[in-house]
């Protein structure tokens, strides 16, 4: 019973690393090439290769240390590179303003 619980935990860990790598790969593929240069990060092809290898390792190679290295690469992309790309591209969440702002400025309730 203990072995079954441990194998379930390890399987969940592998699935989490796979999902993390796939999400990072999709986000890297969706970003524009010029945003990588403007953010002064590695080229888009570099990140696509690294994250693609990470997905392949997570799918086909059951070696935990390679999967952990891929998880580190995915986390670096999501925590460092992606916010820099969003800042350069003008993307991201709301910056300033309030929740009552409309498309033409703040909504003042018909005053």
Description:
- The chain is mainly α and 111 residues long.
- It is 70% helix and 4% strand.
- The protein has a two-stranded antiparallel sheet with strand order 1-2.
- Strand 1 and strand 2 (105-106) form a beta hairpin.
- Helix 1 (2-30) packs antiparallel against helix 3 and helix 1 (2-30) runs parallel beside helix 4.
- The longest helix is centred in the N-terminal third of the chain and has 29 residues, at 2-30.
- It is flat and about 70 Å long.
- The termini are far apart.
- 17% of the residues are buried.
- The model has no long low-confidence stretch (mean pLDDT 85).
Q: What structural category do the secondary elements indicate?
A: mainly alpha
Number of strands: 2
Unreliable runs, pLDDT <50, ≥5 residues? none
Strand order of the largest sheet: 1-2
Estimated share of beta-strand residues: under 5%
What is the helix/strand order? HHHHEE
Task: Please state the overall shape, judged from the principal axes of the Cα atoms.
Answer: flat
Considering DSSP H and I runs of 4 or more, what fraction of the residues is helical?
over 70%
Number of helices: 4
Mean pLDDT: 85
Largest sheet entry: 2 strands, antiparallel
Radius of gyration over C-alpha positions, nearest whole angstrom: 20 Å
Q: How far from one another are the termini?
A: 68 Å
């Amino acid at each position: 019973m203990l072995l079954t619980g441990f194998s379930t935990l390890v399987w969940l860990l592998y699935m989490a690393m796979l999902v993390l790598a796939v999400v990072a790969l999709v986000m890297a593929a969706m970003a524009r090439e010029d945003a990588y240069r403007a953010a002064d990060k590695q080229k888009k092809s570099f990140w696509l290769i690294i994250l693609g290898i990470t997905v392949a390792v997570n799918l086909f190679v059951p070696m935990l240390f390679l999967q952990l290295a891929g998880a580190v690469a995915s986390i670096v992309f999501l925590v460092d590179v992606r916010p820099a790309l969003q800042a350069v591209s003008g993307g991201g969440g709301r910056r300033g303003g309030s929740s009552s702002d409309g498309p033409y400025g703040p909504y003042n309730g018909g005053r």
